[in-house]
Amino acid sequence: MQTTQLTNEFLQHKGQLKSFLLRLTASVEDAEDIMQDTYIKAAEKIESFRAESSLKTWIFTIAANLAKDNLRAKRRWTEDVTDQGKAAALTDKNFFAEAMQIRMTSPQGAFEIKEHITFCFTCIAKSLPLEQQICILLKEVYEFKVNEITEIVNTTEAMVKYYLHTGRAKMIQIFEGSCALINKEGICHQCTELNGIFNPKQNHQEELNKIEMAKQANNPDKEHLFDLRMQIVQGIDPFESPSAELQLHHYAHNSRVMENFLKKNEV
Amino acid sequence: MKQFITILTFMTVANISMAQNGTATTTKTTFSRETTVSINIQANQAIVWSLLTNASDFPRWNSTIVSIDGNIALGEKIQLKSTLDTTRTFKLKVKSFEKESSLSWGDGKGDRTYTITPNGTGGVTFTMTEKIGGLMFPMYAKYIPSFDESFEQFAADLKKEAETIHQTK
């Protein structure tokens, strides 16, 4: 394969790859760095590509390995990351001032509840063990097949199935325990609270009615509700959405909060 | 003689299949008690092993475990709370750890061993045995509840979870 062909294919999958890396790292800088390194490494090794898998799978394999190297030394976030993020924002004068500035001036400063749902998913998925997080993203968000994920994460099919099942079960358990959109007893109302701040004139109930997962909140099939959540995540590119800049600001905030918390609670 | 061997073979096969149907058996002596359960699971060894060695995930799929704190690895100490007695926390040490094959933990009073053996049909036979005993055993034996029901539930939960994972597409 020629480098030009690699470049063309790389550009074709660049959007998905960058969003995958952001969702893995929750850091724009890390996502961009790993993207660049992925291209450099792919170009260096292009002659070893045997087309035993698709080029897209091969590129994602390189990116996932680089991301693992980047993330392995870092501790995983905690399940209550969004609660901690909220508590820190309420005591940080700059948080809302910066966010409001983005809201008022940026073409990507809108706030939409469904975008916050994807933000919330990304943050909470960072509390899963790394392999589980990678497998869940690849399967549920980027629709890779189990045999492709096996290659990307370099493990057996049995282990990919284990990571997928346990990661998914854990995420369902966390959302069921906290997300007020699907559980009346849920303690987290952050998406509607923020909607009230950024879109004060909007009726949040009307907005929720546009979201299938919220409409089906009483459905006892938690697996189905999680699938609906995944459809929302799939439909949003965190770099291209109308509220990308606002959400990226929130990612940076939660990253700082988690970094400080984990440092303080280092064992 | 030939007839005797046939009968003996039949009895052995029947015994094996009985032993692997998830029914627990307990044998008692003056100074010890041993409970065993064995069950066939149609899932990969690695899946069963992963379920048995991920401490924090146990309560999600295993209805006999309230919690396990610690890291299930050779020489590590874990703290286990079982539904048999939720008021007690058992402080146990992981005594053996053969990847995807066998695992045991225990304390001064007894040991629990798990084995996973390929059964030749693409699945595994899972066996769990707990032996408790010692010179003082007769003094407290009557205070220890039967493990049979809990062992059967453990095996059934493991089978259900591992086979569900195995069928993931």
What keywords describe this structure?
heterodimer, A: 267 residues, mainly alpha, Rna Polymerase Sigma Factor, Chain: A, 70% helix, B: 169 residues, alpha+beta, Alpha-D-Glucose-1,6-Bisphosphate, Chain A, domain 4, 8-stranded antiparallel β-sheet, 5 helices, 8 strands
Within CATH, the superfamily of chain B carries the name START domain
Here the CATH topology of chain B equals Alpha-D-Glucose-1,6-Bisphosphate, Chain A, domain 4
What shape does the CA trace of chain A take? globular
Broad structural category of chain B: alpha+beta
The residue ranges of chain B in which pLDDT falls below 50 over 5 or more consecutive positions are 7-18
* Rg of chain A computed from alpha carbons, rounded to a whole number of angstroms: 19 Å
Biggest sheet features of chain B: 8 strands, antiparallel
Reconstruct the topology from this structure.
The complex is a heterodimer of chains A (267) and B (169).
Chain A: H1 3-25, H2 28-45, H3 55-72, H4 81-90, H5 93-105, H6 113-125, H7 130-141, H8 146-152, H9 157-178, H10 190-198, H11 204-208, H12 212-215, H13 222-234, H14 244-264
Helix pairs in contact in A: 1-2, 1-3, 2-3, 3-8, 4-14, 5-14, 6-10, 6-13, 6-14, 7-9, 8-9
Chain B: H1 2-19, E1 25-28, E2 32-41, H2 45-53, H3 58-61, E3 65-69, E4 77-82, E5 85-98, E6 102-107, E7 110-118, E8 124-133, H4 137-140, H5 148-166
Antiparallel strand pairs in B: 1-2, 2-8, 3-4, 4-5, 5-6, 6-7, 7-8
